[in-house]
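Lecture notes, unit on protein representations.

Consider one protein chain, 60 amino acids long.
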Amino acid sequence: MEPFPTRDLRSQISDVVRYIENQPTYHKRITFKKEYVELLNRFEVEYDDRYLFETYDVDD
């Protein structure tokens, strides 16, 4: 028995690569900060806006 399900991970490599490659396009529609806050909310993570990191727009 494998200690870690590597077979399942190998099958997802192309999906992960595609996800990473599409990030610049995706973040033209939604900012990273907004996505981050949505994830915190979705997983019911308590946070204080004062302590969220600052984000800056960077031209490509």
